[in-house]
Amino acid sequence: MSILALTSDTLIATAAAGNIEYSSPIFTGTPIGTQRGIVPTQQYYRLNADYVGSNATGAQSIFGVGVTLSASTVYEFEIFAIFSKSAGTTSHSFQLGFGGTATINNIGYTGLVAYNGGTIPGQNTTTAFGFVSNTTTATTSINAITNAAAFNSHVIKGTVSVNAGGTFIPQYTLSAAPGGAYSTVAGSYIRINPLSASGAATNVGTWA
Prior knowledge:
208 residues, mainly beta, Jelly Rolls, 2 domains
């Protein structure tokens, strides 16, 4: 087994093309001039089979797992998730949020949503729209779902600044029990990677 282990150190004052550096929590590379950039080191989770939720109110894990994040660190994340159900006509809203034991300095994310009654695969979705949030508290992304068979997809991108380290769990919440549980469909994924220490604007590159 071959291991290349770099010791964390302060980034050199003037980046030069070809430099590879490690200053915890990030690796950087400089491909041209002094244009240093972050080398993403993503934690990644993808469902290989549908993950069945509960016909209930209250927060539910999207993937059945959470990721452990470090203290005093800023992360960026991306989520693609498809949700599907086949029964239940009780009107309910669909909400997205985050739980876990990590404490948060701040968070900002946006989501693109497609929704339709029926089953997957589907075309010509009834509703396509977006939502924005700056809180981990559940934020409504779809209102008044009454179809027995229904599916939706969410593409979510954002950043989160962690205060105390701990788990970070993507969740959905239903405002009422629909009469049938949602499943997070196979192929859904989350990826997340560190950007910088928290407490200041993230600044990697030739920004001035």
